[in-house]
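User: For my dataset I need records formatted as: sequence, then structure tokens, nothing else. Please produce one.
Assistant:
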Amino acid sequence: MIKLATETTDFEYPDVVHYWSSESEQYAGGDALITLVNQGWTISETIICERYWLNGSRSRDIYHMELIRDDDGISIAVLVNPYIRNLVKHMGLKLVSYEAQLAFD
């Protein structure tokens, strides 16, 4: 598991607190992920990237992540934006495509 080291990042995310629950929202935004990390959750080293194709050649990526804190674990699906994409790259997390993960299951 990897913790977010905000003091070593070259970019910042607005200081917002955003509550997220899988019971009320299917997908979380980047602000919800950062809130969870700031509350002590750590992100697993492997993230599954699912790509949804919209109209024509437009697509939307969703990162499926496992987070751990103490003895608790949660699964979260995060709508990818440039900040989250850069954060994952900066932290050296491994991205696996959803299709590749299905082939292994």
